[in-house]
Amino acid sequence: MNILMLEDNPADARLIQELLKDVGGARYHFEQADRLAGGIQRLKSNTIDIVLLDLGLKDSQGLETLQYLSKHVSKVPIIVMTGLDDEVTAVRAMQQGAQDYLIKGQVEGATLWRSLRYAVERKRVQRQNELSLKVLETLNKPGEQREIVREILLLIKEFSGVEAAGMRLKEGNDYPYYESEGFVPGHVEAENYLCIKDEKGAPVFNSPGQPALAGICGKVIYGRFTPGRPCFTRAGSFWTNNIFELQASHTGKRRPTFARNTCEIEGYQSVALIPLKAEQGNIGLLQLCDQNRGHFTTDFIEFIESVAQIIAAILARKKAETDLETSYISLQKSLRSTIDTVAKMVEMRDPYTSGHQHRVASLAKTIATEMHLDESAVDHIWMAATIHDVGKMQVPVDILSRPGKLTTPEWEIIKAHPQNGYEILKEMEFPCPVAQAILQHHERLNGSGYPNALKEDEILLAAKILAVADVVEAMASHRPYRPSRGLDKALEEITINSGILYDPDIVKVCLSLFTEKGYTLE
Q1: pTM (2 decimals)?
Q2: What local confidence, expressed as pLDDT, does residue 149 receive?
Q3: What is the domain extent for residue 185?
């Protein structure tokens, strides 16, 4: 961990270093700047992992220092470390972007090290969530697809800090660059086409009857790789932080990039090729390149693979929607793939409730079926239930998974998740009011629910079914802030409040499923 301390008192800086030296297993590099200007200059190198900030510097004083730093280096987490033991200042500092507020002389080395590690991890997760949301929102907004893809590449390029990013998509027998940003002049033209041609210019086909594709890009697109090799992931991505060393370690046909690769010639040392996996197979790949060594980490590649899955699922769905020859069944599969992908995004952030949305969806779908709703209505309820908590992506992870009672402001943040989910999904073209059902799934018959205190027939039937399924599953399952209350308590809750909070017809069907028909929450 590379730590930068902005502190104009050398004695305080030495004290922090001594505290960290006493922490067993702490691996870090520590440096100090005594002015804000010098700190900003050092942060431009993009090698600092975290900042320890004193609020009294020679060229900047107070919370304005934090505001300025947060604005200009938003990617780096900041911990305020000051001698000012003032609760009001601490709250304002946290509101303005500080990850923590520590008092000099009151912190032990182990506590400081935990705070540093937690702040770095929380900032990493926060930035990942922000990118995932921006990509999802961009993909689902109206507009020309090429401009949307370009915007996504810019988002990924900014997030990752790479010099160049490109996306290849299937076009006939080939996978040319659909859009690219930042490559050296001539790269896209030279590397645009992957399909190998014979002397007459006709495509060459491999033994399975596919067009033969050159280079490592072709291997990634076709999923031909050896998972045991360190340059490949289990998901089929290729990445290296030193392509020169990798090429030198392999010769002839054993070279992982055998056949064609100009990245090393153009000076790109860190290279990542991420397949775009959709329901029907790989539809292309995402390429990230940087001329510096050591740009990628395993965690970063795994995260970008999850983002690539989202991109692939939605691009495939959009292609299906505009393809006149695509059948209705293919559209439904693609839509379901998108729904499942969004659900996985939510559950990645909150492992304690992993499976919650799918269990709720299964129960809601079964209730709808027992109520003899038509097939399309049942399917629409399943869609809404499968991603009903997508709005929790905007809730900080520490609030979602924290044991113990939440504060009033934290509870208000939680209660905003139906509205957040609606805002994320409202532009998506579902064949049913999925976004509205998600918006209303915490409304109650007597108007005591949220966010809009709707009553009775103001609430959609899908939202009423979702409300019952959600309450039963939540009460019957373990949470970090409480143990499971058990299925009996869950059924007691909907029974007591039938006709008050919950639709009585839906409650009757739900009770029948568990008490008479042997339904279980798998």
Answers
A1: 0.58
A2: 92
A3: 148-322
